[in-house]
């Protein structure tokens, strides 16, 4: 077997107390999922069992939630944006969310609204999609260095897309300022003082994928995961999903690790210190969807309370995950996973091939009885870069 060493820094959470939040609960997740189920084309994304890979890696099960199959958008993010926009409109027009549908609302809305957001790609595509469903306008800002293919996905949904010369967090501030000046509705997946309602709804929307995964595990006669690896940008998906899983299974009975790129590891650094730590600079990681330097203050308390560990890793770990998922062992299903989607599996693979494999397995609590849940949060949202990594060996080991 090959042996090689990739950087995977693991920090135990010294501030863990297991306290969950009523905002990110099973009840809220099911409310969000009931909304998503009414959208034309809804179906749960696959939960793939990689049994041969699990055997190779020395664990009982590896389960991968494949979000590339979500509404034809190649990523999970619309779950949050669409739900938040629906909740916003329900509040504005005094509609019960249980009676709301995009089709019905589109036919009754007379005025035009503009939804504004900042994105590394997938969230903006979800907001643009929801605005298109409603016959409304979306303006999407992206940080410098954004891939043209991700820009085109947004433009193709009828939205305006502006690439700035700033990093992600500064672009968020620009979006907020411009929207206030022009009377637009901001649909952002991070929070700040005076802006918490919409990002809360977004995080609740993301939990639909966790509710599906738990249902699918039970259909597979799998009682529970022992481990979950959740990637984080600002930590909205990680917080929404972990909140649900911690309530269902108990935070103390679930080994949860939050995974980030080393060039944008704000949650990892916050986890070390026990309070929010921001990261600045360009954050030029291949994991574009995770290139965020300021943790979501709504998600952070839950991650601090319920995450077992925080992991910071180099870009080659995500690239390794992309290649392993795209080239499966034996009869395991093939999963097309993008840079931000594959990093959790990349961590498992990096541990397996590491010269200190036994120590790292022990550190992560992994053994022959472990059932590991991973979220492949995106497919090949930048096909050119996907092929450079998987075909041409970019960011090799």
Structural notes for this entry:
- Homodimer.
- This protein has helices at residues 26-37, 51-57, 78-93, 102-108, 122-134, 148-155, 168-182, 197-206, 208-219, 236-249, 266-273, 300-306, 315-326, 343-352, 357-363, 383-390; strands spanning 8-12, 47-49, 61-66, 114-118, 137-142, 160-163, 185-186, 227-231, 255-261, 309-313, 371-376.
- The chain is built from 16 helices and eleven strands.
- The chain is globular.
- Helix 3 packs across helix 8 (197-206).
- By secondary structure, the protein is an alpha/beta fold.
- It has a seven-stranded mixed beta sheet, sandwiched between helices.
- Strand 8, helix 10 and strand 9 form a beta-alpha-beta unit.
- It has two domains: 8-73 and 198-392, Rossmann fold (3-Layer(aba) Sandwich); 77-194, Rossmann fold (3-Layer(aba) Sandwich), CATH 3.40.50.
């Amino acid at each position: 077997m090959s042996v090689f060493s990739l950087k995977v820094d693991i920090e135990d959470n010294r501030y863990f107390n297991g306290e969950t939040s009523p905002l990110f609960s099973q009840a809220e997740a099911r409310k969000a999922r009931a909304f998503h189920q009414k959208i034309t084309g809804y179906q749960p994304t696959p939960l793939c069992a990689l049994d041969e890979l699990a055997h190779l890696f020395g664990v009982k099960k590896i389960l991968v939630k494949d979000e590339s199959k979500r509404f034809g958008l190649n990523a999970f993010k619309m779950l949050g944006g669409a739900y938040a926009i629906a909740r916003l409109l329900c509040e504005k027009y005094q509609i019960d969310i249980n009676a709301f549908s995009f089709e019905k609302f589109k036919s009754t809305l007379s005025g035009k609204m503009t939804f504004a957001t900042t994105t590394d790609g997938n969230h903006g595509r979800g907001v643009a999609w929801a605005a298109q469903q409603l016959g409304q306008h979306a303006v999407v800002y992206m940080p410098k260095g954004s891939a043209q293919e991700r820009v085109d996905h947004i433009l193709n949904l009828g939205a305006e897309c502006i690439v700035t010369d700033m990093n992600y967090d500064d672009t968020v501030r620009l979006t907020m300022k411009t929207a206030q000046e022009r009377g637009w509705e901001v649909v952002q997946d991070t929070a700040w003082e005076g802006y918490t309602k919409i990002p809360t709804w977004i995080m609740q929307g993301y939990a639909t994928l966790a509710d599906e995964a738990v249902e699918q595990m039970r259909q597979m006669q799998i009682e529970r995961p022992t481990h979950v690896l959740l990637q984080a940008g600002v930590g909205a998906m990680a917080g929404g999903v972990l909140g649900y899983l911690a309530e269902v299974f108990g935070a103390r009975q679930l080994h949860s690790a939050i995974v980030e790129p080393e060039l944008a590891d704000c949650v990892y650094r916050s986890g070390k210190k026990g309070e929010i730590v921001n990261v600045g600079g360009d954050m030029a990681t291949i994991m574009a969807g995770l290139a965020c330097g300021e943790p979501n203050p709504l998600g952070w308390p839950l991650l601090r309370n319920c995450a077992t560990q925080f992991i910071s890793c180099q870009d080659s770990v995500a690239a390794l995950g992309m290649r392993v998922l795209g080239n499966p062992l034996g009869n395991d299903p093939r999963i097309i996973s993008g840079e931000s989607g594959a990093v959790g599996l990349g961590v498992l693979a990096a541990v397996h091939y590491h010269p200190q494999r036994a120590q790292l397995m022990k550190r992560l609590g992994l053994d022959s009885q472990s059932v590991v849940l991973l979220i492949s949060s995106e497919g090949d949202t930048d096909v050119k870069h996907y092929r450079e990594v998987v075909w041409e060996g970019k960011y090799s080991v």
